[in-house]
Amino acid sequence: MPELPQMQALAERLDAALAGAALARVEPLGFTALKTVQPSPDALVGTRLAGVGRRGKYLVFDFGSARIAVHLSQAGRVDIERPPNDGATAVFVREHGTERKAAWWVLAPDDEGPMAELGPEPDSDAFARLVLEGNDRRRIHTWLRDQRTVAGIGRGYSDDALWRAHLSPYATLASLDAAARQRLLDAVRGVLADGLERERARQGGLSEPRLGEHFEVHGRHGTPCPRCGETLRRVSYESYEVTYCPHCQTGGQILADRRLSRLLK
Prior knowledge:
Blueprint: H1 4-18, E1 51-55, E2 58-62, E3 67-71, E4 76-81, E5 90-95, E6 103-107, H2 125-133, H3 140-144, H4 155-164, H5 178-199, E7 233-236, E8 241-244, H6 246-249, H7 258-264
Antiparallel strand pairs: 1-2, 2-3, 3-6, 4-5, 7-8
Helix pairs in contact: 1-5, 4-5
């Protein structure tokens, strides 16, 4: 799933390509993806795009009189296309796979839609206070991915941030001392800043079926840890995996993996 760095860099490229242009038409290719009725997308035809921004993992197209918010979910991707003999620029949103969870909303200026439930951005003072002063007792990997707690972070950058901070994905915020909390805050912001720098090197849209070539440890189980050389491990769930280093993060402990346990019975 695209996370904050991918979406921020994509928003910047879309803004550079489209800001100031008038919307010529909207062609929904899958009607179930549109989650609002009013305002109608057709009401924006002829309106100029003030700019493209981002909130959490949402792209936000600001037309002044209304906004279009787009969430790509797990497999949605965006291409910037220039049809031949047209002279226009098109934004094409497609979804790989069969889940069909990508969605978009047309929002009045005072309507935040699904973004109203988002937590603070990772670079905000509110997030810093949460990390440095909070007492959340959920596993850190869980609440980092909870968009109501902090907006924009997913599985990939959670794995990398916890690896950088030398923290177990099973640790809780409430259990951390001041030094560990500061490491966590610095690691979260660091992996996102580094990811954004790399994502800004992309050209055009965000069209790859799979993303993640920039991650330090996420998705790299079975390979050597980039820091200590220990073999990276994973914990597998039904729809995702957590990657970690036993030496750097868990004091040599191998975390319970339910799938592996079933295989060994």
